[in-house]
UniProtKB/TrEMBL annotation:
This is Putative spermidine/putrescine transport system ATP-binding protein. SMART domains: AAA (SM00382). Transmembrane segments: none annotated. It comes from Xaviernesmea oryzae. The lineage of its organism: Bacteria, Pseudomonadati, Pseudomonadota, Alphaproteobacteria, Hyphomicrobiales. Residues 8-238 form the ABC transporter domain. Belongs to the ABC transporter superfamily. Keywords: ATP-binding, Nucleotide-binding, Transport. It holds the Pfam family TOBE_2. InterPro entries: AAA+_ATPase, ABC_SmlMolc_Importer, ABC_transporter-like_ATP-bd, ABC_transporter-like_CS, Mo/tungstate-bd_C_term_dom, P-loop_NTPase, Transp-assoc_OB_typ2.
């Protein structure tokens, strides 16, 4: 298999605003055709990084290479990028076709080639019938699709997207997530995407770069970040998690023996690096836990009482008191219908679905 070339390289990127550090010596690589999402809470540095790549702000330190060329001091117009903003950033006095044509005109593409490219772009976003309209005559979803068409019409090296779906309602947002993903796969675009929406990042991305306080907390595939978090922050930020104060008491046959304080002892398959010291936090996802007969063949089994049952359509959440702790369990509603509040149940999980995290949030096993 041919190794993909690197489209974007960032080394030691630093950006400060007064006394506040927005980016703290960030290193990042983006490969050709990859969809990489910058995910994190407000103020984590994800948009600052995107704008630095776009040339819309200048870093205080570090380097940015695009296609092997040092672009750190290159103006935005010379970086061969397409940009999609949350507020669309369309020109209201221009027609849809004229908006899409803008980056082609900047590149001095001939009128004939511009016309062909605009037609292809409108067909790609399934809006070939609106080319002569003005943008304020379109819905929010249509305007965002026009912004997408404008971003990729000139076939830029990298497309940057800054919370492009943030202003849309959930139904339309879900639809456009899949539409953007299909466009990415069809065109082989290289995309650097920013969002604070965890579900959006999980659905769309080849890899996710989780940001926290100006640094990369963890980077990997959606599955890696979700099921193999390397810190308490990563475990807690993505989805729901059971995080139980614990203590490592030994090791046996490749598994750590872990005392869940106030609950009991379980086995967790050890994955390096191992946290320093015995005092840790034990992590499981609610959907990784089985109940009753399905729990009997699991490596780890505990017993508790159901304190609450919450049905939300196809998924039912159980809150189970086990000793001094409260465990969250997510099940298909059809599986959980036999469980009642106050009932004593068996819960269990395999030794390879738990994870031991350092209380200092720096290491995991």
């Amino acid at each position: 298999m041919t190794e993909r070339k690197t489209k974007l390289t960032i080394r030691g990127l630093t950006k400060r605003y007064g006394a506040a550090t927005a980016l703290d010596h960030v290193d990042l690589d983006l490969t050709d055709g990859e969809f990489l999402t910058m995910l994190g809470p407000s103020g984590s540095g994800k948009t600052t990084l995107l704008w630095s790549v776009a040339g819309l702000n200048h870093p205080d330190g570090g380097k940015i290479w695009i296609d092997g060329r040092d672009a750190t001091s290159v103006p935005a117009s010379g970086r061969d990028i397409g940009m999609v903003f949350q507020n669309y950033a369309l020109f209201p006095h221009l027609s849809v076709s004229e908006n899409i044509s803008f980056p082609l005109e900047m590149r001095k593409v001939s009128p004939r080639d511009r016309s062909l490219a605009i037609t292809r772009a409108l067909e790609m976003v399934k809006l070939e019938h609106v080319g002569d309209r003005f943008c304020d005559q379109l819905s929010g979803g249509q305007q965002q699709r026009i912004a997408l068409a404008r971003a990729f019409v000139a076939n830029p090296s990298i497309i940057l997207m800054d919370e492009p779906l943030g202003a849309l309602d959930k139904k339309l947002r879900d639809h456009l997530q899949l539409e953007i993903k299909r466009l990415h796969e069809r065109l082989g675009m290289t995309v650097l995407y920013v969002t604070h929406d965890q579900e959006e990042a999980m659905v769309m991305s080849d890899r996710i770069c989780l940001m926290n306080q100006g640094r990369i907390e963890q980077i990997g595939t959606p599955d890696e970040l979700y099921f193999q978090p390397k810190s308490l922050f990563a475990a807690d930020f993505l989805g729901e998690a059971n995080l139980i104060p614990s203590r490592i008491t030994g090791e046996e046959a490749g598994c750590l023996i872990v005392e869940l304080l106030g609950m009991g002892t379980v086995r967790t398959r050890s994955t390096p690096p191992r946290p320093n010291g015995p005092n840790v936090v034990h992590f499981t996802r609610p959907e990784s836990i089985a109940i009753q007969a399905d729990a009997e063949n699991k490596a780890n089994r505990l017993y508790g009482h159901v304190s609450e049952v919450v049905v939300s359509g196809a998924i039912t959440k159980l809150f189970v008191h086990v000793g001094d702790a409260l465990m969250k369990i997510s099940l298909l509603t059809s599986v959980s219908q036999r469980v009642r509040e106050g009932e004593r149940i068996t819960i269990g999980w395999d030794d390879d679905v738990g994870r031991v995290l350092s209380r200092s949030q720096k290491e995991a096993a």
